[in-house]
Prior knowledge:
Layout: E1 2-5, E2 9-13, E3 19-21, E4 36-40, E5 43-46, E6 51-54, H1 68-75, E7 85-87, H2 93-96, E8 100-103, E9 106-109, E10 115-119, H3 120-128, H4 136-145, E11 148-151, E12 155-156, E13 161-165, E14 174-180, E15 183-187, H5 210-227, E16 230-232, E17 241-246, E18 251-254
Parallel strand pairs: 6-7, 7-10, 10-11, 15-16
Antiparallel strand pairs: 1-5, 2-3, 2-4, 5-6, 8-9, 12-13, 13-14, 14-15, 16-17, 17-18
Amino acid sequence: MKVFPLYEGSYSVDSSKKFLPFDPSIHNPKDRPASLFVYVQPFLVETANNLIVIDAGLGFKKESGELVIHDNIRKAGYAPEDVNLVLMSHLHYDHSGGMIYERDGNYQLSFPNAEYVINRGEWEAAYSHPSKSYRTEIFDIVQRSGSIHFIEGNGKLNEQISYEVTGGHCEYHQVFLLEDGGEKVFFGGDVLPEPEQLLRRFKAKYDFDGARSMELREVFGKQAAEQNWLCLFYHAKSQAMARVGYDGEAFKILEA
């Protein structure tokens, strides 16, 4: 397998759920009170049978008008049209905004030849429980394209990709494990969004069930150490990909 982080940038977000680019070299966090500062990093994974984007990012554009995620995919040596699967851990805007983009006043799929793999419960929750975290106008466009592949519960999408509904961050949050050629790659979405969260136990106030997320981080961390998973961290500040060590008491973040 080949794995490429598709770094989209760092942002501040407040209660309005509006994401604003944040560059620590020129911006002062004191100018953005009551804000959470996040890094956004989708991933591109090539397996023997698929070219996969895992979570679609915010959909921010460069000054040229090109999507940042498209530019990063091209830098990795591929084209957005080559992607045939988009795996979605959940549908919060910072993960789903990049599923579509606007060009000349028209909206279209960011990955026109891909199936968008989405948990059915998460989709229904986005529509039935209005929230600033969900932008259903994006989902309407994806739905009209006929490109959605709904999944439910736990299972296997194909021989190489398995999925598990975890809850925790949101009610129908799901994670993915990719296996190919003896290599295992784990994407924990917002249950395990950055490596530092393995090093300390805490309940995040922004989680649907913080206790559940805390418990899951330990479970997945131990599995990662035992089975030598390469873990992908969507909100990593520095280390986007890492392996995990565990000595029976504490976790250690290792090089990828």
